Amino acid sequence: MEPFVTKSEAAQIVKVARTRAGLTWAALAEAIDRPAPWTVSALLGQHPVPKAEAEKVGDLLGLDAEVVEALQAQPTRAGIGDDLDDPTIYRFHEALAVYGPAIKELIHEEFGDGIMSAINFKLDVQRRPDPDGDRVVVTFDGKFLDYRW
Amino acid sequence: MEPFVTKSEAAQIVKVARTRAGLTWAALAEAIDRPAPWTVSALLGQHPVPKAEAEKVGDLLGLDAEVVEALQAQPTRAGIGDDLDDPTIYRFHEALAVYGPAIKELIHEEFGDGIMSAINFKLDVQRRPDPDGDRVVVTFDGKFLDYRW
Amino acid sequence: MEPFVTKSEAAQIVKVARTRAGLTWAALAEAIDRPAPWTVSALLGQHPVPKAEAEKVGDLLGLDAEVVEALQAQPTRAGIGDDLDDPTIYRFHEALAVYGPAIKELIHEEFGDGIMSAINFKLDVQRRPDPDGDRVVVTFDGKFLDYRW
Amino acid sequence: MEPFVTKSEAAQIVKVARTRAGLTWAALAEAIDRPAPWTVSALLGQHPVPKAEAEKVGDLLGLDAEVVEALQAQPTRAGIGDDLDDPTIYRFHEALAVYGPAIKELIHEEFGDGIMSAINFKLDVQRRPDPDGDRVVVTFDGKFLDYRW
Amino acid sequence: MEPFVTKSEAAQIVKVARTRAGLTWAALAEAIDRPAPWTVSALLGQHPVPKAEAEKVGDLLGLDAEVVEALQAQPTRAGIGDDLDDPTIYRFHEALAVYGPAIKELIHEEFGDGIMSAINFKLDVQRRPDPDGDRVVVTFDGKFLDYRW
Amino acid sequence: MEPFVTKSEAAQIVKVARTRAGLTWAALAEAIDRPAPWTVSALLGQHPVPKAEAEKVGDLLGLDAEVVEALQAQPTRAGIGDDLDDPTIYRFHEALAVYGPAIKELIHEEFGDGIMSAINFKLDVQRRPDPDGDRVVVTFDGKFLDYRW
Amino acid sequence: MEPFVTKSEAAQIVKVARTRAGLTWAALAEAIDRPAPWTVSALLGQHPVPKAEAEKVGDLLGLDAEVVEALQAQPTRAGIGDDLDDPTIYRFHEALAVYGPAIKELIHEEFGDGIMSAINFKLDVQRRPDPDGDRVVVTFDGKFLDYRW
Amino acid sequence: MEPFVTKSEAAQIVKVARTRAGLTWAALAEAIDRPAPWTVSALLGQHPVPKAEAEKVGDLLGLDAEVVEALQAQPTRAGIGDDLDDPTIYRFHEALAVYGPAIKELIHEEFGDGIMSAINFKLDVQRRPDPDGDRVVVTFDGKFLDYRW
Amino acid sequence: MEPFVTKSEAAQIVKVARTRAGLTWAALAEAIDRPAPWTVSALLGQHPVPKAEAEKVGDLLGLDAEVVEALQAQPTRAGIGDDLDDPTIYRFHEALAVYGPAIKELIHEEFGDGIMSAINFKLDVQRRPDPDGDRVVVTFDGKFLDYRW
Amino acid sequence: MEPFVTKSEAAQIVKVARTRAGLTWAALAEAIDRPAPWTVSALLGQHPVPKAEAEKVGDLLGLDAEVVEALQAQPTRAGIGDDLDDPTIYRFHEALAVYGPAIKELIHEEFGDGIMSAINFKLDVQRRPDPDGDRVVVTFDGKFLDYRW
Question: Which label site among A106, D62, D69, I102 has the fewest CB atoms less than 10 Å from its CB?
Fold first, then answer.
């Protein structure tokens, strides 16, 4: 059989190829007309990339056909603890440790017993200028699902 | 020595007393003039509650003096895995598993090498009406800190 | 403050009281007009029991007011590993280990990228007579949710 | 000695080859006249595939002889935690966390002390149309085994 | 409600009461006309003890009614790692680490793909005199179950 | 230096070579005049195989010299958790979870404080015909060692 | 039933009672005519203490009858990781991490394939004067057991 | 850059080369005039080997220059759990589980609060003839370090 | 026997009593004429407190005799992971994750193969004013110990 | 695509190349005019190395272009437990286990509720001569961040 690459090998290759090509993630997202957070996570292997978008990215980054094929494959999504210790990611988990039970109480008070969907879901990352130092503002936005038998 | 209660015992007592008093978290937050997410996490033991606010809550909920004292104590903050499996909290950790590496890439692209602070930080929980089902919108808002030797 | 009981203490008490009262789970479910699987998991602390149903169960089992109060409280739901080793429960996790990746492939083939909801969800446990030995038939029935940005 | 491939390498190869061949799992199952869930899990390495069926699949997917050989080998079956975090699989484990103790109570009430076999066992995955959104219906069907000394 | 004891508290009480009564496990097993290994594991909380046998043991050991009641309750069975480190138990797990894969190969060679049931199962512990030092002989005896769809 | 293979690579090679040669484990054991359980575990890397026996097996299976060399090397023996989840092996660990404390009590009652050796030890795997389904009978037979200062 | 104490409660009580009585472990060991390491580990719950010795210690330390009874009970021995982090104990595990594989090689070179028994075993702790600082000298002394089928 | 080998690859190569050369560890230790336990652990990667000794061993075993280079490199020392399950090594950890708290008490009684150094430390492995079976005698000998602020 | 308290109970009591007495840790340290970091860790149970100092603290905080006794007892020191998740403590472990391998390289370059002692060791915590925000300066100061056979 | 190397492969290569070049870490740090601890951790993959410095190091050590490229890439920083067991690194974690809660108390007493930043942070490693043995002095120096909503 012809050789193939896994989705995590593809993610490694995309990261190096993007740097060598001198392209930003924002530029890649714009090229395929998708939001940046979706684009980055999809190219890192967390979503299947539709054929047209995968080929567009393949052209821009000069990827082999096997890499473009891998980008389209259905992922088994990444484990929760995999990058937990990286400080940039850890701070979000720490915030959930401190504020998670409060978020839970407020969701139940406002909506009743249920959850915020992580599937019917989108996320945004913004920079907000602030005289005391600019701020990272990340918004989690998911449909409420109530426990419904 | 007089008896005392721990912060986690105090959190348990506050939850039961709030239900018995028929008060919402929002009402408690308003009574002490603090944002709701801060108020809930502080009363659940994640922040020291200043004396005036602790006493105000004590009056509203009919708490014993030892409970009011415990609310004011400096916490050792909760572990990341403690409530991880609860579905309402888990979905946030799952979203970080799927999107965390993308958030990291976008922070580095926009700000350079560094993190969002989880200390100089605030958080908001809102309901956004939507014809396809209302949405839970949670905003993480922390100061950017760059790796600076 | 008046004493209170936790949801897991309440679950222990319900199990003993049910045995002493000589009542089946099926009878309790019928008494509150709910499906048996929902009734059992709710009385074991996995769902908040509405006031009327909690009081009905309290009457049938002779529960103290604090236990009836605990049944109504919002749960933090049980951890995945808690009873994993019990053989009756383990076989289900083992079946998921063997067939989980196949279930995933078939869901993606039939529905596309997404999940079966565990929130908009119901479950049934039945006995099916079989000449080679009766069979346990457990049905997981949840709404499909597609990854939708 | 001639080269050989492991069962997990064979599973990877089958997944890529199936996509390249443009065949569904359902079509593969039909070709070897086996139920789809059995077929998928067997081709992913969880069951030994009989010689005739392995060769049939090898013909359809253009597999090397070593891959066809690997499909026939006796597996050491997959660990429970291996894909646990993938959302599509996780929801089933979460449902067991919430409802597992209730399933256990109902099995004991109906059958006495014992288990549902995961060996004398079959599983079905169906789509059920529903105006509120189609549903994933997964049925676990195993022989009851009582603790019998 | 009247007080109650858990099955693990009952097991602790049985162990102390047996020592104080000066009775061997063998004598208890004989008194209830059951094999010794079944008797000991049941009294330690791994099996529900039928009412007559539980009361007989209660009489012999002078147990309170709540303990006799606990012996009859359906157990959630003990976790695999709980006593793993105790040297007397560890040696059996070590033997499985060394010989487990060989046992697996021989079962598959003799019976085909399947398992030894741990439910339709019995176990014996014997002493075999030997001039080089007497031997502990433990027999695992379970029905073969083949993977049968 | 000349190339070499590890004991776990050798075990993989032996398994494939045995299948290709169409030889049973029993036939290999007979060829080297050793009990089957010892032979299988030794060839899977759990015991050093004496030179004559290793070469005999090498001839029968057509193994390279480096594989024959690896079979003779002193092993670092396999970890307890390595194959724990495979159902055929798991049932033995589960039986120890349920009956281990009872085995321990009966050993102490019969022999005093001590253990069954897992070193001065042998093991047998047999099939016992039974009208209700044939049975797997595995015997652990080890010298008793008492705690002796 | 009369109250009882567990072996670990007994160990706690012995430690406090010994300090209050102003007796050294050496004096206790001498009083019951046993080596000090055996005496200490037995009183801390790792060995059953014979009746005469338990009562002698009970007299010297003023222990209640239930504590004396607990000292005589058969232990389930302590887990390997329980005190691992205490620096005084950790250094021994660290030395095994660094030198364990070398000890293994030297035992196999000198004795063949087998182990040092931890059951037919004794241990000594000594102080050796040294001008560069006195030294702790701990000797592990166990019977060699060869793998013997 | 020229190729290089890691210390753990070097350890693997040394073990095979030593067997092929038919040399004992004792002979290697004598050749470089170092104690056997130090020599074995150093060649297995736990200590940097000085240049002269590394080259001497390289000559005796016919090692490549990159292997000799790797032997001299500063190690990151091995993890405590890496070989824990191997029975020959496990018995030492088990002995520490049983006797570790007693060793700690005796060190504190004799020396005060402090530890045995695992750095200013040596270890010896001896065979002691015994009519009941020869014994493995391993001596840990480290400088006492007291907690000194 | 008279009641007693454990060292960790004593630590809890000291923390509450100190707050109620309105005394700083610095004041307690000055009162017993010891450095503040030593004083705090000793009162939290990490060092035995000499009798005079324990009694002095007991007088200042109004501690019961059993608490004063507990402060003097030899500790089993705290586990590494116990408070790891608390953000104030976590940042130090994170700094070690990022810089630990660099610290190791620099120690080896400057001193050779060995370690910084954590026993012959002291630690200081200072505030350093800084126009960009005051800084926490923590100094680890331990004797170098070289690997010396 | 052209080949590439990961940051951890680059770190391995740098370590070997530095030894072969006979250069100290101090010399490398001086060559790029950066503090030694920063330089070492950056070259070991914990910080992105700016282009000019990466190329300078590449020239000094004769690194391939792909290695120089890898040094400049943004890292995912190392996990906390990765090298924990190495004695030179472990002693720092052990000191945090013993003194961490005291450091926390003193930071809160001096600064209020907050943390030492591990991002706006620098670290120094020094040798301090001492007649009783020279000392390793490591200084953690980070900006105080208070919990500020």
Answer: D62
G128: exposed, middle or buried (Cβ count in 10 Å: 0-12, 13-18, 19+): exposed
| Run of H or E including E112 | none
Q: How do residues I15-51 score in pLDDT, each as one tens digit?
A: 999 999 999 999 999 999 999 999 999 999 999 999 9
pLDDT tens track for G1-33: 678 999 999 999 999 999 999 999 999 999 999
Model confidence over B77-129: pLDDT tens digits? 978 888 999 999 999 999 999 999 999 999 999 999 999 999 999 999 999 99
Statement: residue H131 has pLDDT above 80: yes
Residue ranges of domains in chain G, CATH in brackets: 7-72 (1.10.260.40), 87-146 (3.30.1160.10)
Dump pLDDT digits (tens) for E16-70: 999 999 999 999 999 999 999 999 999 999 999 999 999 999 999 999 999 999 9
- Using an 8 Å CB-CB cutoff, list chain H residues near I112: none
Measure the CA–CA gap between G148 and J64, rounded to whole angstroms.
55
Separation of alpha carbons H110 and H107, rounded Å: 5
> C111, H58, A100: which is closest to D135 by C-alpha?
C111
Catalytic residue status for I127? no
ipTM of the complex: 0.96
The 3-class SS string of chain B reads CCCCCCHHHHHHHHHHHHHHHCCCHHHHHHHCCCCHHHHHHHHCCCCCCCHHHHHHHHHHHCCCHHHHHHHHCCCCCCCCCCCCCCHHHHHHHHHHHHHHHHHHHHHHHHHCCEEEEEEEEEEEEEEECCCCCCEEEEEEEEEEEECEC
**Percent helix, strand and coil across chain J, each rounded to 5?**
50, 20, 30
Closest by Cβ to J16, choosing from H4, H76, H79 = H4
pLDDT of residue I78: 74
Of C35, C119, C145, the CB nearest to A147: C119
Residues in C whose CB is inside 8 Å of some CB of A read 35, 38, 47-48, 74, 76, 101, 104, 108, 113-115, 117, 119-122, 145-149
Distances (CA, A) of H50 to F19, G60, H57, I144: 48, 56, 11, 21
